[in-house]
Design goal:
- The chain has 469 residues and is an alpha/beta fold.
- The protein folds into three domains: 2-147, Rossmann fold; 156-326, Rossmann fold (3-Layer(aba) Sandwich); 329-468, Orthogonal Bundle (Helicase, Ruva Protein, domain 3).
- Helix content is 49%, strand content 13%.
- The chain contains 20 helices and 16 strands.
- It has helices at 2-16, 28-40, 51-60, 77-86, 102-110, 123-149, 162-175, 191-201, 219-227, 244-247, 263-275, 301-306, 312-318, 334-349, 359-367, 373-387, 399-406, 426-440, 445-452, 456-468, and strands at 20-24, 44-48, 65-69, 92-97, 115-118, 153-154, 157-158, 181-184, 209-213, 252-256, 277-278, 287-288, 292-297, 321-324, 356-357, 392-393.
- The strands form five sheets. Strands 2-1-3-4-5 form a five-stranded parallel β-sheet, sandwiched between helices.
- Helix 2 (28-40) packs across helix 6 (123-149), helix 14 packs across helix 16 (373-387) and helix 19 packs across helix 20 (456-468).
- The chain binds adenosine-5'-triphosphate (ATP) and magnesium ion.
Length: 469
Amino acid sequence: MQNAIALYNELKFATMSKELVLIIEDTASLALIYEECVRKLGYETKTAPTGAAGCAFLEKEDPLAVLLDLKLPDMKGLDILRTIRSNGKNYAVVVITGQASLNTAVEAMQAGADDFVAKPVDPERLQISLTNAIEKTRLKHIVKTFESTGRDHFQGFIGKAPEMQAAYRIIENASSSRAPVMIMGESGTGKEVAAKAIHTLSNRKHKNFIALNCAAIPHDLLESEIFGHVKGAFTGAIADRDGAARLADGGTLFLDELTEMPVTLQSKLLRFIQEGTFSPVGSGETLHADIRFICATNRNPFEAIQRGILREDLYYRLAVIPLELPPLRDRGEDVLLLATFFLEKATKQENKNFESFSPDARDLLLAHRWPGNVRELENIVRHAVIMNNGTEITAAMLPAMRQSNFLPAAERSIEFLPQNTVIRPMEVREREIIEEAIALCEGNITEAARQLCINPSTIHRKMKLWEKN
Ligand SMILES: Nc1ncnc2c1ncn2[C@@H]1O[C@H](COP(=O)(O)OP(=O)(O)OP(=O)(O)O)[C@@H](O)[C@H]1O
Ligand SMILES: [Mg+2]
């Protein structure tokens, strides 16, 4: 609460320092009356005698409020009002309407006016309208700012930890720009969720969001996946095929696990980013695409540069806006918020009756290190819901978690997995084995695949399928 008061005072002070009211009124005698009324309230005034002069002023400055006569010689006052609101300007606007034009007043309110005053203007009524409109605008601004400082969900994310608030703000600010974003964070921290959020909030949202996982696609096919190919470019290229670059034209291209991209291909990608042009494999043709790049990696990019698997120049091109998602273990009580969200989801999907976590289960959730982050949490909750019945999830229903939590990483291995006492479908067991292996490898899918003796692309393919279910 104290924070709320401090924020209120800070914002009140910030907004009060802009004390100018713009009066757009062509009749000089009326303008003088309005000026006097406004000055008596303690505000400065600026008068524009035409609509054009008013608009020119508003293009350069944001006043505290606008007093707008709807009947101007050169423009319609309603059009000025609509322009103000469609430009996202939220300062107070009070309109002045002709005596009998109730319809216009209603139209003005619908177009975003805060209040209206009918002619002949009663000075006292004008002052009350203006004061209320300014106060209402201040409160709206404060509520909006306060909400945006403490959101518990945002564009597919659940979480209200301060680190997540910072991430939400970066996502919001980044979305209005075309600058490339580099998302970093351990596996399962929500890098793809963040990439989609940036696209959805941007003005590219009506165009494609194309995601390519560089680790899931065999190296020799990756170039064609990105740039496309022409018929006969290589064995198996039986027809021309568009790549991600073309599909994402006008939209967003999300290159996941960037450090897994072969270095030779990284040079081609760099050229594409710099020049906006590319050639499909096997074609001499130069094509153009307008793309917003978002990349992600769960490795430390600087280590990857040092090891020679990530080109430094490419990194700096792509990391114009770096976004780091914190590991789940650093998000405090967000673990419980997320666990409750996943519990509701799984309970509904599985037709069960779970409502909450017991105190010992909550303690376990808060103490766990979450190597697989949010994905691991969702899987563990879902597993517990599938395997048990009742209304409360207890610590005893979370055996896999207790196991991996208390064993030092070096000692963990697949042999330590809990013994299964019931026979379950192969598909379910397969998912458990893969997820447990990923958790034991602290979220490193490539390592989990190596130990399971399967290809990482198999894991990625299956994970995509599970996410759909
Ligand atoms: N804060 C969050 N709130 C709700 N769901 C989340 C959150 N973060 C991640 N998830 C969910 O967790 C799963 C993993 O998220 P995502 O695929 O974005 O992670 P990632 O960082 O890209 O992982 P990886 O490095 O393994 O590709 C998804 O099902 C996603 O919807
Ligand atoms: Mg991902």
